[in-house]
Amino acid sequence: MNDEERKIIIDKVSEYHQKESGEYQRVPISTMHRWLTYAMLIPVVVVLVLIGVFFFAAFLTLLLVAVVVIGIRFWWLRRNFESTMHQPDDLNDFKRQTESDRAVVIEDAQIIEETEVHSGKQKK
Predict the structure, then answer these.
(1) What is the pTM of this model?
(2) Among the residues of 30-121, which ranges form H helices?
(3) How many domains does the chain have?
(4) Does residue 27 have a pLDDT over 70?
Protein backbone atom coordinates (compact mmCIF):
# COMPACT_ATOMS: atom_id res chain seq x y z
CA MET A 1 0.00 0.00 0.00
CA ASN A 2 1.49 3.30 -0.99
CA ASP A 3 1.18 6.65 0.75
CA GLU A 4 -1.66 7.88 -1.47
CA GLU A 5 -3.95 5.00 -0.46
CA ARG A 6 -3.22 5.57 3.23
CA LYS A 7 -3.99 9.25 2.84
CA ILE A 8 -7.32 8.46 1.27
CA ILE A 9 -8.28 6.06 4.05
CA ILE A 10 -7.22 8.50 6.77
CA ASP A 11 -8.91 11.31 4.91
CA LYS A 12 -12.23 9.44 4.83
CA VAL A 13 -12.11 8.53 8.53
CA SER A 14 -11.19 11.97 9.75
CA GLU A 15 -13.70 14.82 9.99
CA TYR A 16 -11.12 17.37 9.00
CA HIS A 17 -9.64 17.84 5.54
CA GLN A 18 -6.40 19.54 4.82
CA LYS A 19 -6.51 22.34 2.29
CA GLU A 20 -3.83 23.07 -0.22
CA SER A 21 -2.47 25.78 2.08
CA GLY A 22 -1.97 23.28 4.95
CA GLU A 23 -4.94 24.43 7.06
CA TYR A 24 -7.58 21.98 8.17
CA GLN A 25 -11.19 22.42 7.16
CA ARG A 26 -14.07 20.63 8.80
CA VAL A 27 -16.07 18.32 6.60
CA PRO A 28 -19.67 19.49 6.39
CA ILE A 29 -22.19 17.09 7.90
CA SER A 30 -25.46 16.71 6.13
CA THR A 31 -28.58 18.01 7.82
CA MET A 32 -30.26 14.62 7.60
CA HIS A 33 -27.42 12.93 9.51
CA ARG A 34 -27.58 15.61 12.19
CA TRP A 35 -31.35 15.14 12.66
CA LEU A 36 -30.96 11.37 12.75
CA THR A 37 -28.36 11.76 15.47
CA TYR A 38 -30.69 13.99 17.49
CA ALA A 39 -33.59 11.59 16.94
CA MET A 40 -31.51 8.71 18.32
CA LEU A 41 -30.18 10.71 21.27
CA ILE A 42 -33.60 11.91 22.50
CA PRO A 43 -34.83 8.45 23.68
CA VAL A 44 -31.42 7.73 25.22
CA VAL A 45 -31.50 10.98 27.19
CA VAL A 46 -35.11 10.34 28.29
CA VAL A 47 -34.24 6.84 29.53
CA LEU A 48 -31.18 8.14 31.39
CA VAL A 49 -33.25 10.87 33.05
CA LEU A 50 -35.90 8.34 34.15
CA ILE A 51 -33.22 6.02 35.56
CA GLY A 52 -31.69 8.99 37.38
CA VAL A 53 -35.05 9.98 38.88
CA PHE A 54 -35.66 6.37 40.00
CA PHE A 55 -32.30 6.07 41.74
CA PHE A 56 -32.68 9.52 43.31
CA ALA A 57 -36.10 8.53 44.70
CA ALA A 58 -34.68 5.26 46.02
CA PHE A 59 -31.81 7.15 47.68
CA LEU A 60 -34.20 9.63 49.28
CA THR A 61 -36.37 6.76 50.55
CA LEU A 62 -33.39 5.02 52.15
CA LEU A 63 -32.26 8.31 53.65
CA LEU A 64 -35.74 8.92 55.08
CA VAL A 65 -35.84 5.43 56.62
CA ALA A 66 -32.40 5.95 58.17
CA VAL A 67 -33.44 9.33 59.62
CA VAL A 68 -36.62 7.83 61.11
CA VAL A 69 -34.73 4.89 62.66
CA ILE A 70 -32.08 7.18 64.14
CA GLY A 71 -34.79 9.56 65.38
CA ILE A 72 -36.65 6.73 67.10
CA ARG A 73 -33.40 5.55 68.70
CA PHE A 74 -32.62 9.03 70.04
CA TRP A 75 -36.19 9.37 71.34
CA TRP A 76 -35.87 6.01 73.11
CA LEU A 77 -32.51 6.94 74.68
CA ARG A 78 -33.87 10.33 75.79
CA ARG A 79 -36.93 8.68 77.31
CA ASN A 80 -34.75 6.23 79.27
CA PHE A 81 -32.44 9.04 80.37
CA GLU A 82 -35.35 11.15 81.62
CA SER A 83 -36.86 8.21 83.50
CA THR A 84 -33.54 7.59 85.27
CA MET A 85 -33.28 11.29 86.13
CA HIS A 86 -36.71 11.24 87.82
CA GLN A 87 -35.82 8.38 90.17
CA PRO A 88 -35.59 9.45 93.85
CA ASP A 89 -32.15 10.17 95.27
CA ASP A 90 -32.90 9.57 98.96
CA LEU A 91 -32.95 6.13 100.47
CA ASN A 92 -36.02 7.19 102.48
CA ASP A 93 -37.87 8.18 99.34
CA PHE A 94 -36.85 4.88 97.80
CA LYS A 95 -38.01 3.01 100.92
CA ARG A 96 -41.37 4.78 100.91
CA GLN A 97 -41.78 4.10 97.24
CA THR A 98 -41.05 0.39 97.62
CA GLU A 99 -43.40 0.13 100.62
CA SER A 100 -46.18 1.82 98.70
CA ASP A 101 -45.50 -0.50 95.77
CA ARG A 102 -45.81 -3.53 98.04
CA ALA A 103 -49.12 -2.47 99.58
CA VAL A 104 -52.03 -4.17 97.87
CA VAL A 105 -55.18 -2.14 97.66
CA ILE A 106 -58.39 -4.03 96.98
CA GLU A 107 -61.13 -1.56 96.31
CA ASP A 108 -64.12 -3.73 95.46
CA ALA A 109 -63.75 -6.36 98.18
CA GLN A 110 -66.46 -6.95 100.78
CA ILE A 111 -66.11 -8.59 104.16
CA ILE A 112 -68.82 -11.19 104.32
CA GLU A 113 -68.34 -12.54 107.84
CA GLU A 114 -65.70 -12.36 110.51
CA THR A 115 -65.30 -15.33 112.80
CA GLU A 116 -62.76 -16.37 115.34
CA VAL A 117 -61.67 -19.94 115.42
CA HIS A 118 -60.64 -21.43 118.81
CA SER A 119 -59.04 -24.73 119.11
CA GLY A 120 -60.90 -27.17 121.40
CA LYS A 121 -57.80 -28.45 123.13
CA GLN A 122 -55.92 -26.38 125.62
CA LYS A 123 -52.31 -27.07 126.43
CA LYS A 124 -51.18 -27.35 130.07
Answers:
(1) 0.42
(2) 31-85, 91-102
(3) 1
(4) no
